[in-house]
């Protein structure tokens, strides 16, 4: 599965509320993401407000456009815009993959998991 990783900056003074809002996201927003092709989507938040998103999708740009086309996304984005240092959540900075352990192990024709057994 293709995976995209991106960053955003949440305002540090809004971290607690940002976490609360994501504890239970609106069901129709969850469905819109799923239906737009977002799979295994996770957000990680650092104490200084750095937000890292990880999502499996065939094309992040197309998946973002598909979810943006929904009414619920417009409402969600409007409600979340004040949380971001950029003024909105649209300024995703996609990160470039520079190392993939499994890919390099496969290139060596090595197993991608350690042998099972007693590690002591």
From TrEMBL:
One BP annotation, GO: rhamnose catabolic process
Top-level lineage group: Bacteria
MF annotations from Gene Ontology: racemase and epimerase activity, acting on carbohydrates and derivatives
Pfam families linked: rhaM
InterPro entries: Dimeric_a/b-barrel (IPR011008), Rham/fucose_mutarotase (IPR008000)
Ranges in a coiled coil: none
Protein's name in the database: L-rhamnose mutarotase
């Amino acid at each position: 599965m293709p995976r995209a990783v991106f960053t955003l900056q949440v305002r540090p003074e809004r971290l607690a509320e940002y976490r609360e809002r994501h504890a239970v996201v609106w069901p129709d927003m969850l469905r819109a993401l799923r239906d737009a092709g977002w799979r295994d989507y996770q957000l990680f938040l650092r104490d200084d407000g750095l937000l890292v998103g990880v999502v499996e999708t065939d094309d992040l740009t197309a998946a973002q456009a598909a979810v943006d086309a929904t009414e619920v996304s417009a409402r969600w984005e409007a409600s979340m815009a004040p949380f971001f240092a950029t003024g909105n959540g649209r300024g995703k900075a996609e990160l470039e993959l520079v190392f993939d352990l499994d890919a390099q192990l496969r290139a060596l024709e090595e197993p991608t998991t350690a042998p099972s057994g007693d590690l002591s």
